[in-house]
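Q: I'm teaching a short session on how sequence maps to structure, and I want students to see two examples side by side rather than one. Could you give me a first protein with its sequence written out and its structure tokens following it? Keep the formatting plain so it prints cleanly on a handout.
A: Of course. Example one:
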Amino acid sequence: MRYTFGVALPSAVATYPEVRDVALECEKLGYDSVWLNDHMYEGWLPPEQHAHPYLDCWTLLPALAVSTRKIRLGTLVTSNTFRHPALLAKMSTTVDVISNGRLDFGIGAGDLPNEHETYGIEYPPDRERIARLREALQIIISMWTEKKPQFRGRYYKIKEPPCWPKPVQKPHPPIWIGSISGKSRIVRLAAEFADNFNVLDGTAESYRERMAILDNYCRMLGRDPAGVRRSWHGFASITTKKQTINKTIRGLGEMAEAGVQDFLLSFEDRTDVKALRIFAENVIPVFQ
């Protein structure tokens, strides 16, 4: 089993160099990937904190693609509600080309109703957002892979939109479907479309339960469950103290036993390169 380790980059910063320098340090230290949240601001915080700087995900990615050389670049995760899927297909193709095939395409149904309200973006009920995401994935995949893609659904339609060049990665960039709640509708969608299913936080027990649901949906759809990699986005706090390092290793080991193959980590301070270094030197080697 090969485990991979990715890092959630800082978005709540005022300048690009603050993000770039963390990404470059991750690349230097041997992390597999870096990730950006797709939010307009920190909508999960109290309103008085919404005036903090927050940089946009999809306009940061091309800059990082040029600044870095080999580390993979991902979205954790793109909100389908923010952009028409045909536009997103074109944008993601361009990033894959700029990065020479290093894009991990993370996408979800969208969350944070208040963020949508403040930006004037429609926020449909859960069931409709999932249905929209399913149509969006069909459009995006067809635009990545077909010469003359066509689609007509309940929510979206396209009529042979040109999408050239095609992505560097074949048949297309890996699709990561992310979920906060782990509700069965999003899990079924992952079984149908995802190359990787990502779950935010939770215990090893709850993670194992969600993966069992994923396995069942895969079998129901005639897909080998092993064809979907399993990832977990968790929060990390680490120091040079041996006790803290051992506790972190034990926690990640439990998640690995529950089925996690790819760890995506948010450090307490996302600009703290010292913590990145401690983790890379003391924790990652244990899983190699």
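Q: Perfect. Now a second example for contrast.
A: Example two:
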Amino acid sequence: MTAGRKERRLAREVGGILRLGVIISGVTILLGLVPYLVRDGGRRADYHLFRGEPEAFRTAAGAVAWAAGAHPRGIMQLGVLFLLATPVARVVLCLAEFARERDRLYAGVTLVVLAALAWGLFGSG
């Protein structure tokens, strides 16, 4: 396979992952949004007192647990987690492809990008 073909194939795969991630995220958020609006959509917002996010939504495990319990806010939070995972999946795919092709330079750069993403997601807590 020529280098141009490999690049086009990788670009199609990366585009597919990004598309799929956004679709899955959007559908998941919508699945939580509809029951949330039905149940709480008519409630008047009170902006006089800042309450912040509940403790359960400050970790991925908490959001997944609430989503597993079919709580609408947990389901929407799970959709946001899917959206955050989408670029990470893209970088992992590129890393696997560069490693398979034994392209050490690009694999190394991609590994640095993956480390930066991991630091941004998990290291700042």
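Q: What should students look for in example two?
A: Point them to this: The chain has a mean pLDDT of 88. Also worth mentioning: The chain has one domain: 8-39+53-123.
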